Amino acid sequence: MKNKNTILFGGLFAGIVNGLLGTGGGIIAIPLLTFVLKNRQRAHSTVMAFVLPLSICSLFFYFSRASANWQNIFYISIGGIFGAITGALLLNKLSGKTLKIIFAILIIASGIGILL
User: What domain range includes position 19?
Assistant: First the structure.
């Protein structure tokens, strides 16, 4: 793979952001892999597999600092699983332009929420 170093350092940066902020690995990895792989669906599927180990790694550090409410974890996980299935099914039905608009709106809304 000729872009191995680009992907490696992109993964390093995404991991740092994920560890520092508890989220954000996909925000960095999806545009990077879309650029390198030239295929948005392949980039998304690769990032979904990439985010799992990042989340597991961050989990150990965040859990050591705060107590978890296991009931909340259970309910948000159930909702998240059904949401992930729905989103994955919609991915094949929505245009790339629509996905970009949805992504941009979510990023802007997240940024505003953080600033307030």
Answer: 1-66
Task: Please determine, for residue 63, whether its predicted confidence score (pLDDT) is greater than 80.
Answer: no
Segment 87-114 shows an average pLDDT of 87
* Total domains in the fold of the chain: 2
Q: If you average pLDDT over every residue of the chain, what do you get?
A: 83
State the pLDDT at residue 64: 64
108 shares its domain with 74:
yes
Q: Are residues 58 and 4 in the same domain?
A: yes
Q: 23-59 burial, b if ≥16 CB within 10 A, otherwise e? A: ebbbbbbbebbbebeeebeebbebbeebbeebeeebe
Residues 94 and 50 placed together within one structural domain of the fold:
no
